[in-house]
Design a protein that fits this description.
Layout lengths: L2 E5 L2 E4 L4 E8 L6 E8 L6 E7 L5 E3 L7 E6 L4 E6 L8 E9 L11 E2 L3 E6 L1
Parallel strand pairs: 2-11
Antiparallel strand pairs: 1-3, 3-8, 4-5, 4-9, 5-6, 7-8, 9-10, 9-11
């Protein structure tokens, strides 16, 4: 199983930017899909976007297209979520997740999760 550790969350004003990192260890990631989800207390975990490690193919939720960018650094076994033009509604705990195979929009299809990092966007 892949171990995941997120970092980079914090407090930012609306319109600002943050970059989240997710360090992966424990497995070769060649056949993995790596995704970012977010969750607000009392709501379901929501797909933000993801990247397939081998191909670099990315997929984004419609609401994040154009504002968020996901990338990977093979040498560092790390994926990134660059978030620009942040809005108060982006406030959530952001989780990194991994699954063997292609990306899925469903959180239940991922079996490795990080501990989450809080992102708070003030108005």
């Amino acid at each position: 199983q892949v171990q995941l550790v997120e970092s980079g969350g914090g407090l930012v004003q609306a319109g600002g930017s943050l970059r989240l990192s997710c360090l992966a260890s424990g497995r070769t990631l060649s056949y993995y899909g790596m995704a970012w989800f977010r969750q607000v207390l009392g709501k379901e975990r929501e797909f933000v976007g993801g990247i397939e490690w081998s191909s670099g193919h990315t997929l984004y939720a419609d609401s994040e297209k154009g504002r968020f960018t996901i990338s990977r650094d093979n040498a560092k076994n790390t994926i990134y979520l660059q978030m620009n033009s942040l809005k108060p509604e982006d406030t959530a705990v952001y989780y990194c997740a991994a699954r063997l195979g292609i990306l899925s929009l469903e959180s239940t299809n991922y079996n490795s999760w990080g501990q989450g990092t809080q992102v708070t966007v003030s108005s």
